[in-house]
Amino acid sequence: MEKKYVYDLHAEHKEWLNKMSFYKDEIKVMRNRLSEVAAKNTDREVQAHVEHFQNQLIVQDEQADILRHNIKEYENVIEDHLKKNDVAADHLKWDDHSHLRDDVDTFEKIINDLRRELITFLSRWM
Questions:
Q1: Calpha distance 126→120 (Å, rounded)
Q2: Do 61 and 24 contact (CB within 8 A), yes or no?
Q3: How many structural domains does the chain have?
């Protein structure tokens, strides 16, 4: 497994946590837009699409929470290690967290695809 400086891992964790916060906010905005469409269009086809998107947003909101938790857990492990060892953090290397990077990348791809699909749907019905 590749090793990276703890400082670099910490910076990446902060970036990911900021991204999760952004996506959580964006999910709220998307939910609001769906509510507007649902209120204006009672057609069964439209309501079925609204429900589909609402379900997808619930899933992605949960995934953002899970990712946030996993990132914080990894950050806590590093912090605990640093408290027990007096090695300067800027010299310490730690196992890379490639699994978290892959999870964040996958989440971003899914949420961006969902956003594009939702925009297409909203542009048709708003």
A1: 10
A2: yes
A3: 1
Model confidence pTM above 0.85 = yes
Indicate the DSSP class of residue 3: E
Q: Which residues pair with 4 in a beta bridge?
A: 94
Torsion of CA 34, 62, 22, 122, to 10 degrees: -20
Tokens encoding 54: 């609402």
Host domain of residue 10: 3-125
Q: Exposed/middle/buried for 49, CB within 10 Å: 0-12, 13-18, 19+?
A: buried
Render pLDDT for 44-83 as a digit per residue (tens, 0 to 9): 999 999 999 999 999 999 999 999 999 999 999 888 877 7
